[in-house]
Amino acid sequence: MPSLLTEIEDSNPLRGEIVDRFKYASEHFSPWTDEAKEDYQFALGNQWTEEDRTALKDQARPCLTFNRIRPLINLVSGYQRENSSRIKVNPEGGEDRIFSEVMDRAIKFVDKISHLNYKMGYWFDDGMYCGKGWLEAILTYDSDPIRGELRFKQRSPYQILSDPDFLEYDLNEGARYVFKIVRLSKSELLELYPKKKKIIENLLKDNTDDPTESVLGSVLQEGGDDDYGGKPNITTITKDLADQDESDFEDDEKFTVKEYWRPKMVDKFYAIEIESGEPRKFNTEEEAQAFITQQGSGKIIERKVQEMHVSAYCAGWILQEDEISPFEPYYSGYPFFRFMADWAPNADSETLRVQGITRALKDPQREKNKSKSQNLHILNTQANSGWIGDDDALTEEAKKNLEQMGSKPGLTVWKKKGSEIREILPKGPNAGMIQREEKADEEFKQIAGINPDLMGFQEGTTSGRAISLRIKQAVLSLVRLFANYRYSKEIIGKFILEMVPMLFDEKKLLKVLGVDYMRKALDPEKYPEGLNEGHVAAFLTMVKDNKYDVFVAEADQNATIRYEIFNSLTELLKAGAPIPIDLIIQYLDLPNSEEVLQKIKQQQQQQMQIVASQGAKGPPAA
User: Fold this and answer.
1) Exposed, middle or buried, 197 (CB in 10 Å: 0-12/13-18/19+)?
2) Which parts of 410-522 are beta strand (E)?
3) How far is it between the farthest Cα atoms of the chain?
4) Beta bridge pairs of residue 261
5) Whole-number pLDDT of residue 139
6) How many angstroms separate the CA atoms of 300 and 284, rounded?
7) Which of 73, 159, 289, 564 is least enclosed, having the fewest CB within 10 Å?
């Protein structure tokens, strides 16, 4: 019986923090997860429990599914895809227009290469199915090994656990922590955490928080003399490996990894740059002092600021200990973005707080399926309602034939003289069952708020105005869901904007802008030579230092001051006020507004020249 040594750290406070917080979060979200999984199954057509299926099968009864939920979700999903606009950067003032156009093109480029708009469609679908959808931002270095590229990954609605005590929509408004749960093989773990090779190669047991149960006894000290800081508090344990199953060592076995994201308040040092008057941030006091010495004067200001950290935990072992987020220092928030469809933040439980379209429709759907199945059962029994007769009316062979052929048309039966045999008269259709099914159909319309007019079904002879009003009413019932979706897109848009200085340098951003934009879209008086690397570098610095005044939202959700002025000018123009068309164009914030203005000015000059030339010729001869 071999016995081997294992040395583990048993007093790492981070380990205890992860275990306690994950237990609290998982217990909080467990009821919602169970309900959400059932919602998802219902929407996709799995609407009977295994117990009900077995019971109906044993009774030789039909088990029908008439999925009325999926078409409703498909309709709302189609409406979202048809009417959703891309994320856009809008300027608050005229001086921000060129900056906003440059950043807008950068965000549009990220959207294009990451297929963000496509993935947001399925993000929205998850919210419709079960109430919550998740997207995660990641950095990849395949195409750009230096700066990296931004990608977005679809995550399961049950894969991310946020702080249960946090009740705001945006996680970056105060959530204390977020867990991401993934299942990885040993080869995947080794690729991510190569410094923990010994532990990973010897992992045996997954679902445990005791590291002495999860690895082979051959794991000794690892990571240098201090065992990653754990050697002062180690426990020596003897483990028995006599009856180990070979299947435990297969590479395709998965282990649960819990990524633990949390913001920490850390000290940063600031010094005022004399030339610009703007503060410069430094990680250490020595760096700030060196900057002040270089410029000749200045004062160091110390402040605590938020910094995002991430750890990784698996089978009782910390595989990554409290490292700075890969998105720092450009973005200090969570890389997880959630869409919650029907959100009631003050509800008593998570199950009531977050719902999708499916939740309220499950009972009408059950009623529909059961009534349909019961009606079919009644029809089946009418076709073969059974026979009743004396014991000696038929021979044994005739009885067996009657059992097999009794429901076929034109059946002929010979019975013993003096005995009686007759068909059992079936009951007629149950009016209550028919009304039950019709009532379920009506309840679908009332609960969902999606009427036949929105689905394209016309009921009776209804006027076009009445149909239009009913469609508007159905759309209004979905406004709250779409408002949450737009807010979620706005959060993602702000994140991408903050990441632009990390993803682009001056040359890369100039390439994205393109020569055509540089030549046509700029005011030639302000930018006679177009944008150069100096202009773009200044824009990137503005984003990095958070010194900009723009609004990020859906393209059709412009709420800036300039857009309000544009609406006011158009109203004045409709009222007959002599508003110059070029002034309206300036506030419209078209991507190529300068090109449009230049063409309008050229056309106006040509018209003036034509009028001037006609006036010089004088009046025509009599």
Assistant:
1) middle
2) 421-423
3) 129
4) 178, 310
5) 93
6) 11
7) 564
CA distance 265 to 13: 18
CB-CB neighbours of 422 under 10 Å: 11
C-beta of residue 337 within 8 angstroms of C-beta of residue 176: no
Q: Coil, helix or strand for 423?
A: strand
Distance CA 589, CA 94 (A): 9
Q: Which residues of 548-558 are buried (b: 16+ CB within 10 A; e: fewer)?
A: bebbbbbeebb
Give the Cα separation of 218 and 222 in Å (integer).
Answer: 11
Please state at what angle helix 116-130 crosses helix 13-44, rounded to 10 degrees. Answer: 80
CA–CA separation, 599 and 590 (whole Å): 14
* pLDDT single digits (tens) 359-380: 988 988 888 888 888 777 766 6
Q: Is 450 in contact with 470 (CB distance < 8 Å)?
A: no
Q: Which DSSP category does 428 fall into?
A: P
Nearest to 587 by CA among 568, 612, 571: 568
Neighbouring residues of 124: CB distance < 8 A, sequence distance ≥ 6: 77, 80, 133, 339, 485
Residues contacting residue 319 through CB under 8 Å, at least 6 positions apart: 189, 192, 193, 196, 199, 200, 257, 312, 313
Asked if 554 contacts 87 with a C-beta cutoff of 8 angstroms, the reply is yes
Q: Give the span between the Cα atoms of 24 and 246, in whole angstroms.
A: 35
Say how far apart CA 374 and CA 362 lie, in whole Å. Answer: 18
What DSSP state is assigned to residue 216?
Answer: -
HSE-CB of 266 using CA atoms within 13 angstroms:
17
Name the CA radius of gyration of the chain, rounded.
35
| Angstrom distances, CA of residue 183 to CA of 126, 425, 469 | 21, 60, 50
Question: What DSSP string runs through 583-615?
Answer: HHHHHHT-TTHHHHHHHHHHHHHHHHHHHHHHH
- Alpha-carbon span 348 to 52, nearest angstrom: 31
* Total Cβ atoms within 10 A of residue 335: 24
Beta strands in 87-215 (DSSP E): 87-91, 132-140, 149-155, 160-162, 178-184
H/E element, 536: helix 533-544
Residue 219, pLDDT score: 42
Helices 357-383 & 13-44 angle (0-180, nearest 10): 40
List helix spans (H) across 215-267.
none
Determine contact, residues 572/579, Cβ cutoff 8 Å: yes
Query: Among 62, 181, 88, 230, which residue's Cα sits nearest to residue 550?
Result: 88
Residue 247 is predicted with a pLDDT of 42
Peptide bond into 409 cis (omega under 30): no
In the chain, which stretches have pLDDT less than 70?
1-11, 93-95, 207-251, 378-387, 402-415, 423-434, 436, 444, 446, 448-475, 515-530, 555-573, 575-577, 579-601, 611, 614-622
